[in-house]
Design brief:
Blueprint (H helix, E strand, L loop, with lengths): L2 H22 L6 H19 L13 H21 L5 H26 L5 H29 L11 H21 L4 H19 L7 H23 L2 H24 L4 H6 L22 H9 L3 E6 L1 H6 L2 H13 L3 E6 L9 H9 L6 E3 H4 L8 E5 L8 H4 L18 E6 L19 E5 L2 H17 L1
Parallel strand pairs: 1-2, 1-4, 2-3, 4-5, 5-6
Helix pairs in contact: 1-2, 1-9, 4-5, 4-8, 5-6, 5-7, 5-8, 6-7, 8-9, 11-17, 13-17
Length: 464
């Protein structure tokens, strides 16, 4: 049987396994199984590619280079995967997404360098894949730098949106020229430089509050770029994988934008930044401090506690302590559940991953729609390092940048305790009216130490 036919048949099976793995990832119960399936499928696709026939009908003549590239990439990925902390997972996801887009753009660059005729349609797809892939690569690098703390500020040019549109139009013009003149090396270099710069200029103004949506959007870009380059190479595995990643990333981006009640275009062209004044009405009142002992007493002698984790829990690595506290409360007869906002943390599902790592059962982790009706019956809502996702001005202040965003109704609990490192505003730069509410008390300090103190006091109460 023809070698190319066998490889394509194997690609088809791999594509089916990819889709089944993605479907399994939609549930926390089967997510690990889905990741394993997709991983095996990727290994199979890589190995099968070695059998792709070369120009003379035999094996490809660049197999040594392929082996070296796989070895370098595999070792780097294995080492970084073993070393990365759970709190650094968002930036790792961001940079891995970017590598996929960069690889797609590099593939197209190689095809242009070969100078082989492809036809205008295929060349147009190569140009489009290059543009999207380069934007995804440089944009993901900026996202990585922001999440890693390398870039601590947002940079916004005067007339930023006009600059974005002008650069995008110029990239389209250059791309159109390249479709008609694929041998113009100077135009190709200018096109790639412009595309990389466009990714940088689009991402630098975006602050941490919007970063989960941006990471998801760049992931969708990477999938589209890979799919387009699959058409250029005539590779069914790349086409299917790219379409699946692009479609899933697009759907996730739409869901997260909906969870913030903000159009995707608004996130890109009117981002919330950490340096923003926040706008909206002035918040009145004062923050009222509490102690770990008082917090422990309120929860220990209540009947229901709802824990709302945020990025502060991730930074402190406090998820294990939080689950230990929850177990102590349940042993004392207190119902304890976890409430997750879709955009809590720095990437989609960030809090879910941290709680799963700590061993919290899936049935105790509830999303916004499932838990919001329970807050009025909760004795305590314990907010750990979350800010904008519990800010009640999203319901009440039409002049606020986050007005209309669905939030967790922590302010409607009988009592609210907020563990926070300081009195500053959140990543969006907006003051949180919850912190000034009559039923809210602030417990300042690292989440790790604060929860450890609460655990100590709960244990002391049990022994008394």
């Amino acid at each position: 049987m023809d070698a190319k036919l066998l490889v394509n048949a194997a690609y088809f099976i791999v594509a089916v396994v990819f889709i089944l793995g993605l479907k399994a990832m939609s549930s926390p119960v089967t997510a690990r199984k889905g990741v394993v399936w997709a991983g095996y499928a990727m290994v199979a696709a890589t190995l099968v590619t070695f059998a792709w026939p070369g120009p003379d009908g035999g094996l490809m003549n660049n197999i040594p280079l392929m082996v070296v590239a796989i070895a370098i990439g595999g070792v780097a990925a294995w080492w970084s995967g073993k070393k990365v902390a759970m709190t650094d997972m968002p930036q790792m996801v961001a940079i891995y997404n970017g590598m996929g887009g960069g690889a797609a753009a590099a593939i197209a660059a190689l095809e242009f360098a070969r100078g082989e005729p492809h036809g205008e349609l295929v060349t147009a797809l190569a140009v489009l894949g290059s543009l999207i892939g380069a934007v995804a690569f440089s944009g993901s690098c900026i996202a990585f730098a922001k999440l890693q703390g390398i870039m601590n500020k947002t940079w916004r040019l005067p007339a930023q949106n006009a600059v974005n549109v002008a650069l995008a139009l110029l990239a389209v013009v250059l791309g159109t020229w390249i479709v008609a003149n694929p041998q113009d090396i100077d135009a190709l270099i200018a096109f790639y430089v412009l595309a990389l710069f466009l990714g940088v200029i689009l991402t630098t103004p975006i602050g941490g509050a919007d970063m989960p949506v941006v990471i998801s959007l760049l992931n969708a870009f990477t999938g589209l770029a890979v799919g387009f380059e699959g058409f250029v190479l005539g590779n069914p595995a790349l086409i299917v994988a790219g379409i699946v990643v692009g479609a899933s990333g697009t759907l996730l981006t739409q869901l997260m934008a909906k969870a913030m009640n903000r159009p995707i275009a608004n996130i890109i062209f009117t981002p919330m930044t950490g340096e923003a004044s926040g706008g909206g009405e002035a918040v009145t009142g004062t923050m009222k401090e509490t102690s770990a002992l008082d917090a422990a007493s309120m929860m220990r002698f209540g009947s229901k506690v709802i824990v709302i984790p945020g990025y502060g829990m991730a930074v402190a690595g406090a998820q294990h302590k939080v689950w230990e506290m929850a177990q102590l409360l349940e042993e004392a007869g207190v119902e304890c559940v976890f409430a997750i906002h879709p955009v809590a943390g720095r990437m989609p599902g960030h809090m879910n991953v941290l709680l799963a790592e700590a061993g919290v059962p899936y049935e105790k982790i509830l999303d916004l729609d499932e838990i919001n009706a329970d807050f009025p019956q909760a004795d305590v809502a314990l907010v750990i390092g979350a800010n904008d996702v519990v800010n009640p001005v999203a319901r009440t202040d039409k002049s606020s940048p986050i007005y209309g965003m669905p939030i967790l109704d922590a302010d409607r609990a009988q009592n609210c305790i907020v563990i926070k490192r300081g009195k500053g505003a959140g990543y969006s730069g907006i003051e949180n009216a919850l912190f000034y509410s009559d039923n809210c008390r602030m417990l300042y300090g690292s989440a790790q130490q604060a929860i450890a103190d609460i655990i100590h006091h709960i244990k002391t109460m049990e022994e008394a």
